[in-house]
Amino acid sequence: MSHVIVxxxxxxxxxxxxxxxxxxxxxxxxxxxxxxWKGVQISRRHQxxxxxxxxxxxxxxxxxxxxxxxxVPLRVPERWLDSASAxxxxxxxxxxxxxxxxxxxxxxxxxxxxxxxxxxxTLLGLAExxxxxxxxxxxxxxxxxxxxxxxxxxxxxxxxxIVGYPTFMxxxxxxxxxxxxxxxxxxxxxxxxxxxKQLGH
Length: 201
Fold this sequence. Notes:
Blueprint: E1 4-10, H1 15-26, E2 33-39, H2 42-45, H3 57-70, H4 84-95, H5 99-111, H6 120-129, H7 134-143, H8 147-159, E3 167-170, E4 173-176, H9 181-199
Parallel strand pairs: 1-2
Antiparallel strand pairs: 1-3, 3-4
Helix pairs in contact: 1-3, 4-5, 5-6
């Protein structure tokens, strides 16, 4: 039976997107879905987020509450990280057939290891760790070769009126945020059943 594709709009600077990744990993193999991760730089889309700005106590409180509810431990960065290069790098990694490894490495670097992925050398070091061609990646980042792809995702997110992250697109319905694994499993299972019914499978 074919898998249902579920796009997810995400940003490597977003703690809740990391939580979403960890929660969906818990459901791996339990749902017939293919997650299509679509990177957007939140700070480019929303004025409330600014690169380098301190993450306030209220925001941290919300993140830690969701982390507790979902059972996902994490380190919240002190400041909002510049994710532009990391997101462009994800598109480079996708072309190289290494998106999953890159995705894991970048999220873990920020929220488990406390690294600054806005720093080019840090980013290149992570790429080297997963055996991406570092010189090619550096050239792609310096020339902005993959920036347009990220901006296309951002334009798409605008079209759908997406204002929160992560956002799972269940057909035309945007599911914003992340819930505990069992809640996510039930919500997505319901969507899969409806999608299959409409297709007559």
